[in-house]
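Worked example

This section walks through a single chain of length 277. The input is the sequence exactly as stored; nothing has been trimmed or padded.
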Amino acid sequence: MEEKYYSIGEVAKLTNISIQTLRYYDQISLFKPSHVDPKTNYRYYKESQLYYLDIIKSLKFLGTSLDKIKAAQQFTPSELLDFLQQQEDVIEARINQLYHIQQTLFKTKKQMEEQLAINVMDTVYTKYEEEVRILSIKTRELTPYYIPNTYYSSLMKTLEIENSFLSNRYGCIYPLKEYATLYDLNYSHIFTPLLTDRYITHLTPDMEVQTIPAGRYVCIAFIFERDSYFLQYQKLQHYIEENQLHAEPVVYEIFMPQNYSPNEDDEFIVELKVQLL
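Given that input, the structure is written out below as tokens.
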């Protein structure tokens, strides 16, 4: 039975591959026509060749480079199986990366929604918080008046080494108690929320992954100004005492940017929150 031949235009329609691409495959000897008419220079392909074009399309769909596809054409079935396993590993790694990107987008959107949901300023309120994983670093004698950039740089460097994503939020932790002045308030930790559930391995001795527990919190939010910070803290602390609320003796302070342009002055919303027992 005589085998059927197809012109390059017919192959293009049958396989949904452009004529230009088929010509390029011919030039690089990836997929050559079975016959080229010496008078017209028209390319013709055997029907049986289309099977090999399907393999090229499949590997290309997996993200395999043309050079690797060309090399794979010379493989034995056993070698091709090993090659496909390698491609599967590459795809698995890509899927994991996309999953972490999706997690980052989801948690960043959630953070933005929570920030936009703050509809009262300078007033104490309560709300439910979900559990949040944080990367924290221990500090010494730091107050809201001054926090060296070295602490933030250390957190950023660790996340970069982990190929993780940096949140646009950061925060601090300190004890809930009566303070005489703001200078007496010392942070125990500085932290940034973790946007994925990826395990962090490259921790320095003063770093740890902690959890801000889920539960109800009593909170106060305000535009950050050093001169008014202490007054806002006192509002929260006195509210807890006056209402005889049972609370964990820990304050979580969250800084949330109000703008994202380097050409504008920094402006942050600060939320102080304490978990209720």
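What to look for: The mean pLDDT is 88.
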